[in-house]
Amino acid sequence: DIQMTQSPSSLSASVGDRVTITCRASQSISSYLNWYQQKVGKAPNLLIYAASSLQSGVPSRFSGSGSGTDFTLTISSLQPEDFATYYCQQSYSTPYSFGQGTKLEIK
Amino acid sequence: QVQLVQSGAEVKKPGASVKVSCKASGYTFTSYDINWVRQATGQGLEWMGWMNPKSGNTGYAQKFQGRVTMTRDTSITTAYMELSSLRSEDTAVYYCARGVKLQPQGGTYSYYYMDVWGKGTTVTVSS
Q: Could you tell me how far CA B87 lies from the centroid of its own chain?
């Protein structure tokens, strides 16, 4: 099974900051990497698929990059509604494993 | 609009089974997979498996093999996830999510992602 590791596990930032979250796969997964945002008490919401494609309706301040084993999610200018937990997920092979999550908190 | 509506919360005793439903609307039910993902309180997301509503084909995470069954009723556009031999560690919120396959240009393997999620069903296992 492919293991996904995110860093950091938690992050404090301010409105307007640029934030980067990293996700590493235990083996190469090409670009088969998705990012989700989850707010407390809510279902996850797809942000990025295929490593860098922005899901329809997602603000352009979100972007994804990477291929192989190393990936990043960047939020260019944090907004109040962006404080949430973020998960990466590989879709290269089943089981479609998730990272452990990165909790983004207000500084 | 495209949505997945899940059944209500369940409380079960250890050793029992639970069956969670997920009703799809706003799109062609047989054109997309249904995945099941669970999340224990304060924990991360755990993928359980997928089902193709058109064929009924399924794929389960090894961890759940032998305990989980994913089925569907196309006449009412509803998917089901049944988990048996419940234990306290199965206490979690269970989500269904639509799985999308996207064929890349010039590529062999489809990208796969979950674009629509149900609101979740809380399953509590307690004696």
A: 19
Examine the pLDDT at A107 and tell me if it is beyond 80. yes
Q: Which long-range contacts (CB under 8 A, 24 or more apart) does B71-76 make?
A: B72/B29, B72/B34, B74/B29, B74/B30, B76/B23
Of the candidates A69, A72, A62, A64, which has an alpha carbon nearest to the alpha carbon of residue A22?
A72
Please provide the average confidence, as pLDDT, over all residues in chain A. Answer: 97
CB contact under 8 A, A101 and B111: no
Amino acid letter at B96?
C
* Residue A34 forms contact with B (CB below 8 Å): yes
- Whole-number Å distance between alpha carbons of B79 and A42: 21
Residue B42, Ramachandran bin (φ over 0: left; ψ between -120 and 50: alpha; else beta)? left
Round to whole Å and give the CA distance between A80 and A101. Answer: 19
Give the integer Cα–Cα distance in Å for A28 and A104: 27
- Please state, in angstroms and rounded to a whole number, the distance separating the CA atoms of residues B64 and B36: 11
Say whether B62 and A95 touch across the interface (CB within 8 A).
yes
pLDDT reading at B48 higher than 90: yes
Establish if A3 touches chain B: CB-CB under 8 angstroms: no
| Positive or negative: CA dihedral B65, B113, B102, A49 | negative
